[in-house]
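Subject: design request, 107 residues
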């Protein structure tokens, strides 16, 4: 299934916005990437949920969410693929994928 993700662009690299994968924020192209799965919360004392890659089901929803950032700071929306996802209990427009594939694309 095609989904969309907000990432930070740095030259030809794309990076996660906050938490990395296996100690790195750099996301590789053309391979399946497994999220570091753990119990997390939004802010201190917030509702706990199992982590995953934050994704959006439409480009439009990703664009709406991107407008909420205080600074665009090289933020872009990329196309990804996933085989599974679940809703993020703290935001109805954001979904969590345990695994994504990011095909090489023009940034």
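Subject: RE: design request

Done. Sequence follows.
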């Amino acid at each position: 299934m095609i989904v969309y993700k907000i990432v930070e662009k740095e030259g030809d690299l794309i990076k996660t916005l906050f938490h990395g994968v296996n100690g790195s924020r750099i996301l590789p192209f053309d391979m399946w990437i497994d999220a570091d799965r753990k119990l997390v919360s939004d802010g201190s004392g917030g509702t706990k949920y199992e982590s995953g890659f934050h994704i959006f089901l439409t480009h439009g929803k990703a664009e709406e969410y991107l407008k909420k950032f205080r600074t665009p700071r090289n933020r872009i929306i990329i196309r990804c693929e996933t085989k599974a996802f679940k809703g993020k209990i703290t935001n109805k427009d954001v979904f969590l994928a345990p695994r994504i594939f990011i095909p090489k694309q023009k940034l």
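DSSP finds one helix and eleven strands in the chain.
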